[in-house]
Write a structure and sequence with these properties.
Elements lengths: L3 E6 L8 E8 L6 E6 L10 E7 L8 H5 L2 H8 L2 E4 L19 H16 L2 E10 L2 H12 L6 E5 L15 H4 L6 H6 L15 E7 L5 H14 L2 E7 L5 H19 L4
Parallel strand pairs: 4-5, 4-6, 6-7, 7-8, 8-9
Antiparallel strand pairs: 1-2, 2-3, 3-5
Length: 264
């Protein structure tokens, strides 16, 4: 059995209602620090909708809180927002090349159970979104486990890994594409959309028209249309930048909040 050391650092500040969780396990490369933002009026009795918010490549757990005021978003929308560490280049999946980079194992074995243990969560309203690598990660985790999440979002996401087969540490995750082409195809979210074909799952994703990832996002949208998936795609001016993501996260929270409230 894997030996798991869990340190919970409950640095709860009355003013910002923030908790910090730190996990250590032998299937992650170093301790995962996760920030938990609770609405200021959280009373620990009423179940809260939950949003996992994932950072991008070479990012870190506090990256989103540097882009925007995450506590303010939690207060405004009434969501519990969780920002975990993505270990620079995990791509939020189980690594095929490194035994100590099994992100999905950490996510499902450690992070999710601890959140359920510590907080009152509305399990019908669990959402996930992220930027760039985190946009891939959000769609990836959602499409592999659509019954767990209500919906998912992606901002400037790398929604097809194949065009980036020599970049961003991806060969260290999936191996050489010439040796394992099917592995790359199977783990690209554009090819996983069939997992929600014919369901009522709705998703949101966006990308700036000046972004290097725009082409894969547009093809992802076309694939959604082919499969009849209810997808909101926001195509707008912008590039791969903090200023873009600071604005786009607002669209995602409005979308998720409409699902919580049953608004079409």
């Amino acid at each position: 059995m894997k030996k798991l050391f869990l340190l919970i650092l409950l640095f709860t500040n009355i003013l910002n209602a923030q908790d910090t969780l730190v996990f250590k396990a032998d299937y992650i490369p170093y301790p995962d620090t996760t920030l938990v933002f609770l609405p200021a009026e959280y009373d620990a009795q009423s179940p809260l909708p939950l949003l996992f918010l994932l950072h991008g490549w070479t990012g870190y757990y506090s990256y989103w809180n540097e882009i925007t005021d995450v506590q303010k978003l939690a207060d405004e929308f009434g969501f519990m927002i969780v920002c975990p560490e993505g270990f620079d280049d995990s791509w939020y999946m189980n690594n095929f090349e490194r035994k100590n980079m099994q992100y999905e194992l950490f996510f499902w074995n450690d992070l999710v159970p601890k959140l359920f243990e510590n907080y009152k969560i509305d399990r019908a309203n669990i959402f996930i979104s992220g930027l760039s690598m985190g946009g891939h990660g959000a769609m990836y985790l959602f499409l592999k486990n659509p019954s767990f999440f209500n919906s998912a979002g992606s901002m400037s996401g790398i929604l097809d890994l194949v065009p980036f087969s020599t970049k961003y540490g991806l060969p260290d995750v999936l191996g050489n594409i010439d040796v394992n082409p099917q592995r790359w195809e199977n783990n690209s979210t554009i090819n996983m959309l069939k997992n929600i074909e014919g369901t009522d799952r709705r998703i949101i994703f966006d990308c700036g028209t000046e972004d290097f990832a725009y082409d894969v996002n547009y093809r992802f949208y076309e694939r959604c249309r082919e499969l009849g998936i209810d997808a909101k795609f926001i195509s707008q001016p912008g590039n791969h930048s903090r200023n873009y993501w600071k604005n786009s996260i607002i669209d995602h929270l409005h979308f998720f909040n409409s699902l919580v409230n049953g608004v079409k």
